[in-house]
Amino acid sequence: xxxxxxxxxxxxxxxxxxxxxxxxxxxxxxxxxxxxxxxxxxxxxxxxxxxxxxxxxxxxxxxxxxxxxxxxxxxxxxxxxxxxxxxxxxxxxxxxxxxxxxxxxxxxxxxxxxxxxxxxxxxxxxxxxxxxxxxxxxxxxxxxxxxxxxxxxxxxxxxxxxxxxxxxxxxxxxxxxxxxxxxxxxxxxxxxxxxxxxx
Length: 199
Ligand SMILES: Cc1cc2nc3c(=O)[nH]c(=O)nc-3n(C[C@H](O)[C@H](O)[C@H](O)COP(=O)(O)O)c2cc1C
Prior knowledge:
By secondary structure, this protein is of the alpha+beta class. It has 2 domains: 1-35, no CATH class; 39-196, NADH Oxidase, CATH 3.40.109. Helices cover 45% and strands 13% of the residues. The site of flavin mononucleotide has 10 residues, from β3 and β4.
């Protein structure tokens, strides 16, 4: 994505602060979006967003541009029970990916790594998409853009609250056992968002 500089499309009064070095108030206001960097789940430590802050993140995710108000994105915070179900599903995925008949045949290190993906970060969110195919005026790509906007809103809002995190998908999100943890029929597990604090 290219970013328009001053005079390249944005009104002058909107670009003045961005263009002016040392505009501290604007820089501070925009810092979560100007400086956000991903931090992977293995590097995240407590605290993560609590229930009240998670509710704000979900509100930010819901309050994005959404043609037709189809609400193509659901964000699901994982409680302990759901993390346990993810751990079992990740083990099933890992076994299938290695051609093993069951998770009990995985070696201990792989088992530990898979469980860490479910329990490692202080906060785990599932980004679930439901893309309607019967609404011609809102084609799938527009709905996916809205899903992406929700992801960006969650990451931006989490950064604004002082947290760090990362969106991760990988082939495991397509495994039926993994998808079934948070998705219903016709839904796609778009990615996970891991949130917490930098050490
Ligand atoms: C939907 C989605 C899924 C992603 N899945 C992965 C992934 O599985 N593995 C990975 O290394 N990065 C993945 N990324 C990219 C990272 O979240 C991150 O954006 C990237 O490493 C760049 O780092 P930055 O955000 O600090 O610029 C994904 C991004 C998105 C939007």
